[in-house]
Amino acid sequence: MIFNIDTAKKTAELLLQINAIKLNPKNPFTWASGWKSPIYCDNRITLSFPPIRNYIREEFSKHIEKEFGKPDVIAGVATGAIGIGMLVAEYMGLPFVYVRPEPKKHGRQNQVEGFLQKGQNVVVVEDLISTGNSSLMAVEALKAAGANVKGMVAIFTYGFDVSVENFKKANVTLHTLGNYETLLDLAVSKKYITEEELDTLKDWSKSPSTWGQ
């Protein structure tokens, strides 16, 4: 669920402007999962643009407090959301931790890095939601460490049915600054893509795991 349509439009415009989101239906990208995709999203690029990263941290901070109340800790999901998560924590004056994809193989074998006490309220910051699997693994790691996870916020979601179902099953509330539907509407109106390319992008989102095969 997006926070609101105005934020979603503004986020889409900013991500397109700096090529954090690339749309290329004629020459699809290949994701790490092997999926073929006419869109590629790398929100880490936002960190290189101070006005944009400031916009994101301030929108996150405002909406986190509104939707979840002020948490005790902000948690970023490694590696993509460590940077923006830290900025949000700093802006809100809160402690910060981050969650590895899996525990370290040496030392204290931590999966959650930073100081976290049992029972603390945590909001998780993520950069991008595709299937939601890796994001929800981070939530499970935080719960295993004794955190009370209030919910998750992300910069952008593709809005796949599988991700909606995964978050529903896990009983985790997700709010995002931007989403795929709003992005496509803006991309057409701003002439980033044609109407024909829009049809291709819509078809992909219906069955992203098999598209292009």
Provide the descriptors you would attach to this structure in a database record:
magnesium, 10 strands, 213 residues, transferase, Rossmann fold, 7 helices, PRTase-like, Or_phspho_trans_dom, two-stranded antiparallel ribbon, six-stranded mixed β-sheet
Q: In words, what does this structure look like?
A:
The chain has 213 residues and is α/β, with parallel strands linked by helices. The protein has one domain (5-201): Rossmann fold. Helix content is 41%, strand content 22%. It contains seven helices and ten strands. The strands form three sheets. The protein has a six-stranded mixed sheet with strand order 7-6-5-8-9-10, with helices on both faces. The protein is globular and about 50 Å long.
Helices and strands, with pairings:
Layout: H1 5-17, E1 21-23, E2 29-30, E3 36-37, E4 39-41, H2 50-68, E5 73-77, H3 82-92, E6 96-99, E7 112-113, E8 121-129, H4 133-144, E9 148-157, H5 161-170, E10 174-179, H6 180-189, H7 195-206
SS-based structural class?
alpha/beta
Total of DSSP H or I helical runs spanning 4+ residues: 7
CATH topology: Rossmann fold
- How much is the radius of gyration in Å? 17 Å
- Multimer state: single chain
Integer tally of domains: 1
Protein name: Orotate phosphoribosyltransferase
Function: Catalyzes the transfer of a ribosyl phosphate group from 5-phosphoribose 1-diphosphate to orotate, leading to the formation of orotidine monophosphate (OMP).
Family: Belongs to the purine/pyrimidine phosphoribosyltransferase family. PyrE subfamily.
Domain Phosphoribosyltransferase: 56-151
